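Morning - 2-OXO-4-methylpentanoic acid inputs below, output right after.
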Amino acid sequence: MSLSSTKSISVQKVEKSRIGQVDFDNLTFGATFSDHMFECDYKDGEWQNPTIKPYGNISISPAAKVFHYGQAVFEGMKAYKDDNGKIWLFRPEQNFLRINKSSKRMAIPEFPREIFFEALEQLVKLDKEWVRPGMGNSLYIRPFAMASQVGVSASPSTEYKFMILMSPAQAYYTGDVRVEIAEHYSRSANGGVGAAKAAGNYGAQFYPTNLAREKGFQQVIWTDASDHKYLEEAGTMNVFFRVNDTLLTAPISDRILDGVTRKSIIALAKNDNIKVEERPVLVSEIVEAAKNGSLKEIFGAGTAAVISPVSAFSYKDTVYEIDKQEDSYAAQFKKELLDIQYNRSEDPFNWRYEI
Ligand code: COI
């Protein structure tokens, strides 16, 4: 679709905003949605009828392929309000590129750049009051695509819906996170869909994560599917390990999500002259570092989770506690990142995108 036709996103506004009913100081992550949403259909070989409309239920056949074969991908982004009331997105180009990469892997037609950005701009502007000021407040943006063709034959859908929802958010994790290192279950395998933000990647983690939760761990750190020797990523975030003063993280592969927060932390670390190694990280070296005291920090990084310190990990039924660091890298990167996102500092990498 050309740029001129993206200008024709049709807009149906709510008659009365629901914003007055929302307790912004007590939000459960992802449970409250703003007044409007975006919807666009793929039919007859093209994306058509881009529409902004009141948030609400949609009508879809129970035979739609998404329900039977899980052909669905999504993204996570945030809008931030600065102290002067201006609204910013953070590296939205990365989310645009990644949703299309995920779509390609799941045989979903790519979404046009112009409509993606136009929809985001119009939607966020329309619901700008839902972006609350103040560090820690944001509007979580959830673009997603799903197979809507009716029929249960196991083949790619010929029809899709691309939608964007927005949800006011505060912290995803309150407090530190305790994690279990996976020894039996796996998140992704070579040649699989691990690098895609495919809906099923998340659903498949719920059962093993529930088992970990029963033992007091909020998240699982996934290991390689072949021998569970290498640390990969956690359920809702990429993971960093600080051994002495070096930062370690698994390299991007077809098993690991190319996280926007992950790549931003790597850039910040390099800019701060912190040594970063993107390389396979052995479980055994982290266990050894925990034993000999050189493991200083573990933290997760993701759009929803921001930067979440890990206070303990469990491996083969032994729990390793991680002491808080005075010169915490997690705290340093979180401050640098939030300062950029909330327009409280310079933006040397050009990451901010003004709405
Ligand atoms: C995000 O950080 O945006 C994610 O997609 C994680 C999500 C599963 C909450």
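Note: Helices lie at 3-6, 65-69, 92-105, 113-126, 199-214, 260-271, 283-292, 329-341.

O.
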